Amino acid sequence: MTLNARIAPLLYLFAGLFGFAGVALAAAAAHGGDDAHLVASASAMCLAHGPTLLALAIGAEKLRTAWLAGILIGAGTLLFAGDLVALRYAGSGLFPMAAPTGGFAMMFGWLAIAVGAFIRRG
Q1: Distance CA 110, CA 31 (A)
Q2: How many domains, in total, are found in the chain?
């Protein structure tokens, strides 16, 4: 069993969790106060990257870099959205530079998808 096949269930799990969180956070943002933009941004990241993880899980056997992209995008989304939600509801972020670290991880995850276009199966 390949690494991509072993990580696919984890990608499915986080795709579902991010979808759920994205919808819940969108509802919270709609009823939020002055800091609703933080929750809305977290919602947007979850709703953008949940389907991405689903696609990576479905196509894991076709894209050699799916495991790397999934880890980077999943961890990045957790850090980015988690930091914004913590800032809104707990009054402080997860740790200094958590959101930017998560953002860079997501960007590198997308680059891993692009690099996968040039790595032949074989």
Answers
A1: 32
A2: 1
